[in-house]
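Good morning,

Attaching, inline, the backbone tokens for the sequence recovery test we're adding to the shared suite. The designed sequence is right after.
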């Protein structure tokens, strides 16, 4: 547990660290690769957010731990959403934002991060998210 001296901050940091740790465990990465798990999360969150209708993006963001929510919303331009992109364009964007090689490639990275995110939001919100994206993309969502 982190001790910032402010219990609300401690809780936010712990929840964010739990999500990053879950990504690391899914890949078998040691904690020393925390920057890599952060980069993986960010690389998937941004194109996912941009692809969603604004209302769905906001509802999904509200389910995330507060610090992760800040990462999710960083640089977002709701007026430009949703961005229509094929799965190939989505993967290309993730690849461009994730500077590390990972076993299984971008496909495995996306699936693992999405699976981890699904553990940190309600099942109802996850199903709502799946219903708001094209079927070809929904097939990627656990």
């Amino acid at each position: 547990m982190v001790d910032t001296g402010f219990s609300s901050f401690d809780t936010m940091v712990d929840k964010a660290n739990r999500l990053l740790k879950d990504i690391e465990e899914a890949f078998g990465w040691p904690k020393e690769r925390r920057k890599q798990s952060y980069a993986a999360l960010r690389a998937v969150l941004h194109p996912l957010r941009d692809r969603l209708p604004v209302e769905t993006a906001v509802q999904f963001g509200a389910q995330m731990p507060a610090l992760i929510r800040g990462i999710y919303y960083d640089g977002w331009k709701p007026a430009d959403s949703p961005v229509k992109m094929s799965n190939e364009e989505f993967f290309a964007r993730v690849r461009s934002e994730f500077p590390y090689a990972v076993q299984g490639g971008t496909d495995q990275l996306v699936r693992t991060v999405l699976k981890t995110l699904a553990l940190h939001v309600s099942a109802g919100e996850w199903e709502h998210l799946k219903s708001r994206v094209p079927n070809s993309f929904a097939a990627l969502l656990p």
